[in-house]
Design a protein that fits this description.
By secondary structure, the chain is α+β, with helices and mostly antiparallel strands. It contains five helices and six strands; from the N terminus they run H-H-H-H-H-E-E-E-E-E-E. The strands form two sheets. A three-stranded antiparallel beta sheet has the order 1-4-5. A three-stranded mixed beta sheet has the order 2-6-3, with no helix packed on it.
Amino acid sequence: MTDDTNKYAADANAAEEAALNAEAASEQLEAAAVEPDPLDLAKAEAADFRDRYLRLAAEMDNLRRRTEREVKDAKSYSVAGFARDMLAVSDNLRRALDAIPAEAREAGDAGFNALIEGVEMTERAMLSALERHGVKKIEPTGQKFDPNFHQAMFEVPNAEVPNNTVVQVVQAGYTIGERVLRPAMVGVAKGGPKVVAAEETPAV
C-alpha cells in the first residue's frame, strides 16, 4: 500500500506541475499577444510621422501658391478703380476731339492745331500708361458678340455678315490682366448672310 500511495502522490505532483507549466505558458502567450513587438511599434510611429510630414508639406505648398496668387492679383488689380476713372477722362478727351469739325481742323490756325495735337498726345500718353499697368483695349469689330466682353446697345440690319457680328463700337472696352475692366458698348448685326436654297433637281 505504501508503494501505491507514493506512486499516487508522485503522479499528482507531476500533474500539478504540468498544469502550472501550462498556465505559465498560457500567460506568456497572452503577454506576447498583448504587448506588440517594439520594432513594429517603431515602424508604425515612423509611418505616422511620415504621413503627418507629407500632409504638412502639401498644406504649406498650397499656402505658398495661394499667397503668390493673391499677391499677384493684388498687384495686377489694385489699380483697377483708378484705371477705370482714367478711362473716363480718356473718353472725354476723345469726345472733345471728335466734336471738332473737319472743316475747323483744316481752316484752324497754328495755335488751334497745336491745341488739337496736344490733346491727342495727352490721350495717347494716358492710354500708353494704362497699358503699362496691364490695361488693354478690346478690339471687337468684326468679331462674334461675346457677352463676357461686349455690351450690345442696338442691332444693325446687315445681311453681309453673320448674325451677332459686332459691326460698330460706341464706346471702347478694356481689360486688365484676365478680367474685364469695362465691356465694349457695341452694335451687332441682325440677320446674317442669306442661305441660297439649292435648286430642286427635276425628276427623270
